[in-house]
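Residues and backbone
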Amino acid sequence: MIFSTANTIALVRHGETDWNLERRIQGRTEVPLNSTGRAQAAATAARLAELAADGPWRGMLSSPLGRAVETAEILATTLGLDSARIEEALWERDFGPAEGLLVSDAHQRWPGLEIPGAEPLEQLAERSAGAMLGILDRAPRHHRGRARRAAARGARAAQRRRGAPHPER
């Protein structure tokens, strides 16, 4: 069976942080956007505004993490939306003891990135799928078929874009 809906959801990864530049695993550690990250969010907002010609964006959701919230707020301001609603299920992956390490060091320490104490990929996938289904399910009935939402995210958006699990870049 194929499930289809005309709802449009834009998954937006948060803007750049200094840890991204240093190639450190961020996970749930609070690392703020840098000036490049803020500019990236503004450029993304401009692109989403162009896409609004197909119908207005109706809401903004965000992970509770500061860098995701800041990215979402930049988007919401540009798009004329209310502040982002925080969705706990959109949390970044918890990398446990690997957070703060250089990606290369983490690969050396845990080949295959099988990190003890990190959120298992299966749990991340279940949480991600549940979050997306919940978002679609909560779309107002009178907006179904034309609801458009944007969500600011981190690791899961990058995973989906690249098609493989990895720590944040």
Summary: The helical segments are 18-22, 35-51, 66-79, 103-109, 121-137, 155-162.
